[in-house]
């Protein structure tokens, strides 16, 4: 029998802001349906509010808005993730999940554009942008994004 460890590193592939992205499974804690989000007045535009996940209160971040793309009011899922051990656990709003992609370093291409990307790869016939989790939702990245973001959601 093969174990999960035998499969090697993988990316969770999803869509946010109309683009396909991947996050290393090392950063992903779980995936859930997006439940009731409680708004927080005066929060940065990418910060959609708070969600209660089995007694744990998590900040909900609009990943598309955080990446500089159009926000996603139709997000259906949330990825509960943590960039590193000293970083906050967050719930990332995404439009849809597209499965797991094997991460073979030999198949990773340079990022096609500037941004918080580690590279790109092909998965099921589409290009997937591999996100650098620390550069997107690590503590320092979130502080910088909050300082640069307008308050509120028009």
Separation of the first and last Cα atoms:
53 Å
Task: State mean pLDDT (0 to 100 scale).
Answer: 90
Task: Give the helix proportion (percent range).
Answer: 10-25%
Q: What sequence of helices (H) and strands (E) makes up the elements?
A: EEEEEHEEEEEHH
Number of helices: 3
The residue ranges in which pLDDT falls below 50 over 5 or more consecutive positions are none
Give the strand order of the largest sheet, numbering strands 1, 2, ... along the chain: 8-1-2-10-9
The class by helix and strand makeup works out as: mainly beta
Round the Cα radius of gyration to an integer and report it: 15 Å
The main pleated sheet reads as: 5 strands, mixed
Count all strands and give the number. 10
How would you describe this structure to a colleague?
The chain is globular. The mean pLDDT is 90. The chain has 3 helices and 10 strands. The chain has 154 residues and is mostly beta strands. The strands form 2 sheets. The protein has a 5-stranded mixed β-sheet with strand order 8-1-2-10-9. Helix content is 12%, strand content 42%. It has helices at residues 63-66, 133-137, 139-148; strands at 10-16, 19-24, 28-33, 47-53, 56-62, 77-82, 89-94, 96-102, 117-123, 126-131. A hairpin with a 6-residue loop joins strand 6 and strand 7 (89-94).
């Amino acid at each position: 029998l093969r174990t999960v460890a035998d499969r090697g590193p993988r990316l969770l592939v999803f869509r946010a802001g109309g683009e396909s992205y991947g996050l290393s499974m090392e950063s992903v804690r779980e995936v859930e349906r997006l439940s009731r989000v409680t708004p927080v007045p005066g929060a940065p535009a990418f910060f959609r509010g708070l969600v209660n996940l089995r007694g744990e209160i998590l900040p909900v971040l609009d990943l598309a808005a955080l990446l500089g793309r159009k926000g996603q009011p139709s997000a259906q899922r949330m990825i509960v993730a943590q960039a590193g051990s000293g970083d906050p656990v967050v719930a990332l709003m995404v439009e849809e999940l597209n499965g797991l992609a094997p991460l073979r370093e030999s198949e990773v291409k340079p990022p096609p554009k500037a941004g918080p990307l580690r590279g790109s790869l092909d998965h099921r016939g589409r290009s997937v942008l591999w996100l650098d989790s620390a550069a997107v939702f690590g503590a320092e990245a979130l502080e910088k994004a909050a300082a640069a973001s307008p308050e509120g959601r028009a």
